[in-house]
Each structure stands twice: as structure tokens, then as C-alpha cells.
Amino acid sequence: MSGTSEGPTPATELNRPVVTESEILAASGAESSEPVEAVEPVESAESLEPVEPLEPAGSAELAAPHSPAPPSYRSVFTAAPLAMAVVDREGLVTGANAAFADLLGRDQDSLAGAVAADLVDLASDARTWHAYRELLRGRRARLRCTRRLKHPEGHALWVRVTVAPLPPDDGGVLVSVADISDHRALQARLRHLRMHDPVTRLPNRTLFFERLTTALEAESYAESGTGRIGVCYLDLDGFKAVNDTLGHRVGDQLLAAVADRLTRCAQDAGRARAGIPLVARLGGDEFALLVEDSTGTEQLADLAESLLDAIQEPFDVSGRRLKVSASIGVVERHAAGTTPTALMQAADTTLYWAKADGKARWTLFDPERNASRVTRQALASSLRPAIDRGEFALEYQPLVGMDDDRVHGVEALIRWHHPRFGTLTPNRFISLAEEDGSIVPLGRWVLRTACRQARDWQTRYPDEPPIFVSVNVAVRQVWDSDLVADVADTLEETGLPPHLLQLELTESAVMGSSGRPLQALKALSDMGVRIAIDDFGTGYSNLAYLSRLPVSVLKLDGSFVRGFQIEDRAAKGSPADEVIVEAMVQLAHRLGLTVTAECVETSAQATRLRRIGCDTGQGWLYSRPVPPDRISELLGTPGVQAGVGNP
């Protein structure tokens, strides 16, 4: 049997009968409480056949051929189109009609004295054999079962066997056999149509999951095989464009051609292994290959590579030469403990990774990457409720003057105290907040909390120069909310002077700003709020455009500072980085901007930045991000010593 389809029963299986279903009635006429054994599944229409009530003994029953009987009954028995045989209490045939002999391909005279159970295979399973023996002893009312017999001419013969008792005076039982081969063939044909895709003639999603479910059952791999299973989940890249431009007829022809190539790849792989992978079309332009008893990820990787190579070759369809590619998600694991749903979810996730990584490739399932995805989904779903539950908090990192070592300001950095994942830094959730829009309410909370804290410091230390607070702003906050109104309301509510608030936007967000974002930045600047470009030097670095923006501060990206020569004389810095930083500082000063250097970690870096003319520094040399009370300890300190704010 092909690994990609169902077909006729293999010839090797015709050497043995098959038990498909049995009905056993007790002698009282009630259905037996014993469970029905089904060695091979059957269609529900057959298994749900009603049980006919037992006819009372009397004139309607047939007498044994060797007993005296009215000629009319013998004539009926002989001429009946239904195959029948009379069997004595010992289980031997005492008489059979011509229909019985013809159906089984036997000589009618040779049937006398034959063991009836052998003729119709009633001894192939213990339960049916026991019920048959009980019926011969008069303890059962009737037995019905379906069997696949081997005809002497070599073909398979599906029959329904019914065994019913004869009157006590006659003794024995009547065995009737009905040929249901055509019915079974029709059932098989209908099943094939129901389980196969009409476009590609491949197994469809229903059959694929049926095979997958069977393969994952413990008895399928407990005693033999590798106990492993693999799936290649394939999706065509750009197939929608073919359908949209050339029509569904051409699209269907392309799918059929793809199916042929996948089938050939599966057959080639099967020659080198124990079995041929099942190829199925799951829907649209999605296909799957099921590898039972896989030997490891290398086998699935080789198969995926061969599939990619086959698909990348051009297709000749309706006089057109079409070229498509495919993305494949590959999963291979132990079958034990795996469910069809879990396996296909993993395959679907891996297919998504292959698409996201650039398409036209295969990607192997990575549990760690999947765990990260699951965590990301969990965070995204709990972001908005976390704002209401008060799970967010702010920490502050000092911005220290390079010339006086005093705290001039602080940057507010958000932390999420997640009940499950612990304390999370912004890189774990800010992108999620920007995607789903929760960055807007979250940004408002950060702005109010930071301004309120800055105003508190100003009130508590009136004799000290007030420090400003720097708040990061996402581009979506500018587009999706009235940022200018939010800032104005917050300043009015907290009483913080506008010049003590600094808003940081990344260089890629600010450069190229036009329309509403640019108008918002200008309005904020006119209000007295400081605008800073964060991570300057890593994005567009459009100096000409910089002169037209309402920016007052440049924050140099930490990658430049890390390139400075450090205290370890064996380690060499990058002279080019120093030259670039010095040039940017001089340019910023000529434009009337102040410069903050990020990621200052050593005193040697601070000394170089001071010599270059940098205005303020930020980094672990001075302090890590700390709670507000630690910042309060730094205020009023004549000079910030290295690491004084660190735990």
C-alpha cells in the first residue's frame, strides 16, 4: 500500500481472514453483556445494523436435509439464492445448498462433513469461537459476524455470517452467508473520496490526522519501530499571487504539479528507509509529510532539503513557466507523550519561523525559541490588565555633569514586576506594548509618575539646583494620542516646570519626522520641554535634517563610548570612535545642543569624554538604575563618586 493513499487490501493480507464485527445473542433472546470485539474498524452503517429478534421454533424453521421434511422446505433450501448450510451439534456440515458451495468456490458434495467453523472462519478470534461453541450447545440465540475470506481463485471475499439454532428436535444450527463484497467496495470508494483531495488526489486533512492519531497510539510503537515521529509542514511562498493573476484553474494545476513532486520525494525517501512518508494536502497551499518511526532530526532535515530543491525547479503549467518556493516547518520528537494537536501546533509555529526568517527555507523546531514565543504571548495578553493592577514601577539612572560630577537629571526607566516571570526590563515588553497600542496608557502612567517624582525632589531639596527627569516616548504615542495635551495636563497636575522635563525619542523615530509628529515636537519645544534624541549615531544620522528639528539634547549611543581606550593597557580601544565622538560633540555645540554620553563604565572613559567636551554622562560608573530613595541620597552630594549609586 502506498504511503500517500489508501487502496485495495494488499495480496499478502488475503492469506488470513479478518474479524470486523460480531453480534452475539444469548439464548434468552437478549443481547449478550459481553463486549463486542472489533479487530478491524468498519463503517458505522454496518456496525449499527439492528439485531433481528429470534424467531420462535416452529413451522418457519428449516429441518436438516437428512431428516424427514416436507418437499416444499427442501426445495426452498435447495433453490434459495442465499448461501446456507446445516451444521450439527458437533459443528460439522450435514447439508449445504448450491449457493453456499458457489459462494465459497467449493464442490457441493465435498462440503458434507466439513468443519463449518473452518469454512467461514469462526475460530479466528477467541470471543467469536466461544460464542459459536455456546450456540452449538443451545446456550446462545444467534451469532452474526463479518469476515474477509480468501476465495480459492485468489481474490478476497467479504461475507456476513449468521448462525441461528434449528428446532430442538432437528438439532444443530443453520449457517447463512451473504456476499457483501460490493457493499464493502462501495464503502471503500466513498471513504477514499471523503479522505482525499479532489485537486491533488492526495490524502486530505481528515485522513492525515487519522493516520497521525493512529501513529501516536502507544500500541503503534511500543513493541517495534523507533518510537519517534516527524512532520514536515510545507507552505508555498507567493501562491496567492498565482491565483490572483492567473486564476484558480492555473492555481489548481500548479498545486497538482507540486503534489506530484512531493510524492516523488516521499517515495525516494521511502526507498532508503523502512516506510514511505504520508503526503497530504491540508488545505489551500499547505502540505504535510508524516514520517512514522523516524530516526532523528537528520532524516527530517534531509527530507526537507529535498522538498525545497524539488519545489524550486520551474513548473510548466498551461503553457506558462512558473517558479515558486516553499517554507517548511520541521518537527521530530518521541511519539510518547505527544498529541496530534501539540505536534501540529509545533509544526505550525516552526513554519511561521521559516516564513519570518526569509522564506524559501526549512526551520527546525526549537523548544527554547518556542518557550520565548509562549512567554511573549502571555506577556502580551496581560499587559493592559497589569497597568490597572499596578504591576509597573520606575527606577531612575543619574545623568551626571562631566565638569562638576553632580547629578543634573535622571532617566526614568520602567520595570514590570510580573507575578509569574519576575522583574522584567523594557526590552521584554515595550515592543509588545507598541504592537497592541497599550503603550499609550502605559506611557501616560510613566509620564505622570516621573513628573510627580521630579516635583517631589524639587520640593524636598529647595536649596539644591533642581534636577530634570527624562522620559522615553514611543513613536506610537505621538501618532495614537494627543501627546502635547497629555504633557500639558501632567505638568499642570504635578506642578513641575516644563524645563525640568525631557522627552527622549530614538533617532530613527525623530529623523524623517513630518506632519503630526513634527508639529507635536515643535509644540512641546515651544512649551519649554526639552527634546532629546536617544541612541544618536546608530540610525539615519541626517545632520542636515537635525538642524531643522526642535531638539536640545543628543544622547550618544553607548557603542561609541565602549570603543574608547580603557584602563586595561592590554586592550586596545578604537581611535576612530574617539574622533567620531569628538566631531559629533563639536557639531552639537555649534548647533546649540548639549551632549550626553551613554554607557560610561570606567573612569578612563569619563576622563576622555570630559576632555572631548561632553556635557553629561550616564552609566554604571555613576549608578545603575535605582529606586527613587537611592536618588534622594545622591542629591546634595558635592561630587558623585564612581559607583556610589550602585547596590
UniProtKB/TrEMBL annotation:
<dbReference type="InterPro" id="IPR029787">
    <property type="entry name" value="Nucleotide_cyclase"/>
</dbReference>
<dbReference type="InterPro" id="IPR043128">
    <property type="entry name" value="Rev_trsase/Diguanyl_cyclase"/>
</dbReference>
<dbReference type="Pfam" id="PF08448">
    <property type="entry name" value="PAS_4"/>
</dbReference>
<dbReference type="InterPro" id="IPR035919">
    <property type="entry name" value="EAL_sf"/>
</dbReference>
<dbReference type="InterPro" id="IPR052155">
    <property type="entry name" value="Biofilm_reg_signaling"/>
</dbReference>
<feature type="compositionally biased region" description="Low complexity">
    <location>
        <begin position="30"/>
        <end position="57"/>
    </location>
</feature>
<dbReference type="Pfam" id="PF00990">
    <property type="entry name" value="GGDEF"/>
</dbReference>
<feature type="region of interest" description="Disordered">
    <location>
        <begin position="1"/>
        <end position="67"/>
    </location>
</feature>
<dbReference type="InterPro" id="IPR001633">
    <property type="entry name" value="EAL_dom"/>
</dbReference>
<feature type="domain" description="GGDEF">
    <location>
        <begin position="227"/>
        <end position="367"/>
    </location>
</feature>
<dbReference type="InterPro" id="IPR035965">
    <property type="entry name" value="PAS-like_dom_sf"/>
</dbReference>
<protein>
    <submittedName>
        <fullName>Diguanylate cyclase (GGDEF)-like protein/PAS domain S-box-containing protein</fullName>
    </submittedName>
</protein>
<dbReference type="Pfam" id="PF00563">
    <property type="entry name" value="EAL"/>
</dbReference>
<dbReference type="InterPro" id="IPR000160">
    <property type="entry name" value="GGDEF_dom"/>
</dbReference>
<dbReference type="InterPro" id="IPR013656">
    <property type="entry name" value="PAS_4"/>
</dbReference>
<dbReference type="InterPro" id="IPR000014">
    <property type="entry name" value="PAS"/>
</dbReference>
<feature type="domain" description="PAS">
    <location>
        <begin position="69"/>
        <end position="113"/>
    </location>
</feature>
<feature type="domain" description="EAL">
    <location>
        <begin position="376"/>
        <end position="639"/>
    </location>
</feature>
